[in-house]
Amino acid sequence: MIMDNKQKSPIDSIIIDLILDHYNLLSMTNRKEILSSNEFDEIVIHAQEIYYKIIMVNTSLGQEGIS
Q: How far, in Å, CA of 47 to CA of 32, rounded?
């Protein structure tokens, strides 16, 4: 199934940015550029926290769950 941009999860771009940060940090410190499943899980949890903070700051009170 092909998804268009409107169906993409809003958290995807945060996860991608965090993964890129992870690889850039490893590259800059001359370490092997790998991403373990545990590191990925930590990135997803961190992305969720960032996303929820953005929602709470940028959304009017009582409108958090409305698209």
A: 23
The reported pTM is 0.73
pLDDT digits (tens, 9 = 90+) for 30-61: 999 999 999 999 999 999 999 999 888 887 77
With respect to residue 49, please indicate whether it lies within any of the assigned structural domains: yes
| Closest-CA residue to 42 (of 58, 57, 21, 64) | 21
26 located within any domain: yes
Task: Say which residue the tokens 């800059």 belong to.
Answer: 28
Per-residue CA distances from 2 to 12, 16, 44 (Å): 16, 19, 22
What percentage of the chain carries pLDDT values higher than 90?
A: 64
Residue 15 within a domain: yes
Amino acid at 9: S
Residue-number span of the structural domain to which 43 is assigned: 9-54
